[in-house]
Amino acid sequence: MTVRGPLAVAVADFRERVRRPAYAVVLAAAVGLGYLAVPEVDSRWVIVNAGDHRGVYNSAYVGMVTALAGALWLTVAGFYVVRGSVVRDERTGVGQVLAATPLRSSGYLFGKFLSNLMVLGSMAGVLAATGLVMQLARGEDRAVDPVALLMPFGLLAVPVLAVAAATAVLFDSVRPLRGGFGNIVWFFGAMVGVIVGQGPDAPLGGLGVQWVARSLRASLAAAQVEPVDGEFSLGLMYLEHPLRTFEWSGPDVDFGFVAQRLLLVLVAAGIALLPVLWFGRFDPARTRRRPEPTAGPPQPAPAGMPLPGMPLPGMPLPGMPLPGMPGAVAVGVPGTRRIGTVPSWLASHRGSARGPRLRAVDGFGRLVGGEVRVLRRSGSRWWWLGAGLLGAAGAVAPIAAVPAVILPLAWIWPVLLWSRLGTQRHEYGVDALLGAYPGARRRMLAEWGAGLAIAGLTGLVPMLRMLLAQDVAGLAAWGAGLVFVPSLALVCGVLSRTHRLFQASYLPLWYAVLNGIAALDFMGAVRVDGRQTGPAPLAVGALALALLAIAFLTTTLRHSRR
Predict the structure, then answer these.
(1) Highest-confidence segment of 150-159, 418-427, 432-441
(2) Is residue 307 pLDDT above 60, yes or no?
(3) CB 170 within 8 A of CB 274
(4) Residue 325, CA distances (Å) to 319, 328, 329, 340 in order
(5) Most CB within 10 Å of its CB: which of 53, 175, 508, 509?
(6) pLDDT tens digits, residue range 230-261?
(7) Which chain regions cross the lipid bilayer (predicted)?
(8) Rounded-to-integer distance, Cα 55 and Cα 216, Å
């Protein structure tokens, strides 16, 4: 196998991805991340805190903080951007074409790994360019040192991004982890990895935090500056006062650390190639399931029944006029027993729109009921069992734990169901068919109502407990969260047409609320002495309505161009 095989796969896949609108959104997010990493000189929001000190904004310090921000945030969120390429090749038939080529499974998987790394690397590159702009804009030190600026990206960000790129290939090759369940597993696994990666015993240097911290402490000691607490912390933090500054020219090159980072990249490549042990390379001969045993020899078809491949009696062939429908012709594949099939997604809506003979309210209620059936079918029996257990726990838990623990757990459970809002028509290939129907906004409102029903059902027990306890503030926050979550899910689904955007957005938001970040509390879970400290419910409700308006506007613009 030559190197051109995986490189060709990587380059072709990368070119296909950069043409998508989502790629531009990701690059814009990288610019915003660079802005947060290098805030105003007197800002209280920081990402790196070295004992209540920070370095002067020179190339070394700006490169370090932006690289650490990329290693921390792009690793978690970038996974959702790059995953799904193997599944897409299988769905579109590209994989079957590749199965007929001399390209081996190892070459294909390594090419996907390179493609994922190229996408994440381009995000890191935009982040580095943003860091350069922020250094010049902040004006503390405008002397640009390209080596000092870019070296942290090569040693801190790229090796960790390689692990995310490899894990995306691994998850795409394991059938239970291909969908939303894999996205949830990655989020919590990445959170554990981020915590472990900042520790002194992190394998292969982890995120590189300790390497940077040792250099910062040495510079503080050389400048005879006494840090307030001596702790080095990484993450988005709000401080009581701005950080004090000191000169820092960057860490010394440690060849042992460099060797560890190279080894981490090799480990990531090994993770990407691990599915060679079971990956069938889309070859039907290797992935075809065994036929189920039959009770006896095949029986002949009854007299008069057409065999498979033969048209049904009286059924119009494709291209023939349909009786009773002037100007309409049949569509389908000649020689088949069916003219077409109706997806299960569309079948769930039967009876939801019965024409002008029904009243508008009754017709909309049927439409909402159809959307609820769609979401209900997405949950297995085990999902409903888990929802029931959460409800039972909420019924017996202390009242103080209901808004702080039970409600967040109840509203993380339906994340996979909510992520389907606004995406199913596109995923099932019926978007063009339903686009001809004039009630696009009505359908979307019914989807939002179904998400609202799921939120109300899973959060019913916490709401009843707060009602019995006469917790008026908690009920108001519950109502605001009830409206906010399906609105966020719907706008993410409508904008991206994929379930991953909502999962990548909602999971960190929920995790922040669970960890007591009051500024992001949308459900009233963060309390001090029983008093809510988060945004007002009216503000959360207004934001929910704004998100819903964006979804409506996007749908209207798309429908008007048909």
Answers:
(1) 150-159
(2) no
(3) yes
(4) 13, 6, 8, 17
(5) 53
(6) 577 777 777 778 888 888 888 888 888 899 99
(7) 21-38, 58-82, 113-137, 149-171, 183-200, 258-280, 382-400, 476-495, 507-526, 538-557
(8) 8
Q: What is the dihedral of CA 428, 430, 435, 440, to 10 degrees?
A: -50
Spell 175-208 as b/e; 16+ CB within 10 A means b: eebbbbebbbebbeebeebbeebbeeebebbbbb
Cβ burial of 516 (10 Å; 0-12, 13-18, 19+) is middle
What pLDDT does residue 290 have? 46
Query: What is the pLDDT, as a whole number, of residue 348?
Result: 46
Per-residue tokens: 486: 């399906």
* Angle 482-487-489 from CA coordinates, rounded to 5°: 105
Q: Which two tokens stand for residue 230?
A: 């001596």
Structure-block tokens of residue 505? 């957005």
Backbone angles phi, psi at 51, to 5 degrees: 60, 50
Contact 444, 490 (CB under 8 A): yes
d(CA 443, CA 433): 13
The tokens describing 249, both together, are 């020219």
3-state helix, strand, coil in the chain (%, to 5): 65, 5, 35
How far does CA 168 lie from the centroid of its chain? Answer: 12
Tens of pLDDT, residue by residue over 465-513, are: 999 999 999 999 999 999 999 999 999 888 888 888 888 889 989 988 9
Q: Which residues pair with 244 in a beta bridge?
A: 53
Tokens at residue 25, please?
A: 């959104």
For a pLDDT cut of 70, what percent of the chain falls above it? 79
Q: Are strands 45-50 and 232-238 parallel, antiparallel or unpaired?
A: antiparallel
In degrees rounded to 5, what are phi and psi of residue 237? -130, 150
Q: How far apart are CA 537 and CA 556, in angstroms?
A: 28
Torsions phi, psi of 363, nearest 5? -65, -40
Structure tokens at 69: 């921000």
Taking the C-alpha atoms of residue 557 and residue 548, their distance in angstroms, rounded to an integer, is 14
Instruction: Name the residue type at position 481.
Output: G
Query: Long-range contacts of range 8-12, CB-CB < 8 Å, 24 or more positions apart?
Result: 8/111, 9/98, 9/103, 9/107, 9/108, 9/111, 9/112, 9/114, 9/115, 10/111, 10/112, 10/113, 10/114, 10/115, 10/118, 11/115
Determine the distance from the C-alpha atom of residue 82 to the mean position of all C-alpha atoms in its chain, rounded to a whole number: 10
Residue 71 per-residue DSSP state? I
The H or E element containing residue 467 is helix 460-468
Q: What is the pTM of this model?
A: 0.74
